[in-house]
Write a structure and sequence with these properties.
- This protein has a single domain, classed as Metal Binding Protein, Guanine Nucleotide Exchange Factor, Chain A, CATH 2.170.150.
- Helix content is 11%, strand content 27%.
- The protein contains two helices and nine strands; from the N terminus they run ααβββββββββ.
- The strands form two sheets. The chain has a six-stranded antiparallel sheet. A three-stranded antiparallel sheet has the order 2-1-9, with no helix packed on it.
- β5 and β6 form a beta hairpin.
- It starts with 24 loop residues before the first helix and ends with a strand.
Length: 146
């Protein structure tokens, strides 16, 4: 049995049968623009400061750009100064996590729990109440205003 990122083997994965997980690479390429495809399906990173979501101040929800699963609420967004949309918590059950060593240092990477699309990394330098910073690629998100 293979678990979603961050799930223990044997744990119940509520999205295991999701049709989003059955899409081929070719189908993802057709559905997503090049930047979003690179981030979500190839675990890429957009250039810092390039996302219009950095300036988004309206109330609403941030959802996965791949499958529209709600991931973050606008009330949890904060200005981190990093150049990427940042949040101090997430909607429970919406993210899976795994360890990433791509830059030679262990980091916690997180993905959409439904389609397994790469979102970003979480760091222990965020504001209260969690002290965490979910540093998200804007290309991996869609904003849905309230």
């Amino acid at each position: 049995m293979v678990a979603a990122p961050g799930m223990a083997l044997g744990a119940t994965d509520p999205y295991a049968a999701s049709p989003w997980r059955k899409l081929s690479d070719a189908e993802w390429r057709k559905r997503l623009d090049a930047g979003t495809y690179n981030v979500l399906r190839r675990e890429g990173t957009e250039l810092a400061g390039t996302s219009p979501l950095n300036r988004e101040k309206r109330r609403g929800t941030y959802a996965c750009a791949g499958c529209a699963l709600p991931l973050f609420k606008s009330d949890w967004k904060f200005e981190s100064g990093t150049g990427w949309p940042s949040f101090y918590t997430y909607i429970k059950g919406s993210l899976g996590k795994k360890t990433d060593h791509k830059i030679g240092v262990a980091r916690t990477e997180y993905h959409c729990a439904r389609c397994l699309g790469h979102q970003g990394h979480v760091f222990p330098d965020g504001p209260r109440p969690t002290g965490l910073r979910y540093c998200n690629n804007g290309d991996a998100l869609r904003f849905i205003p309230t």
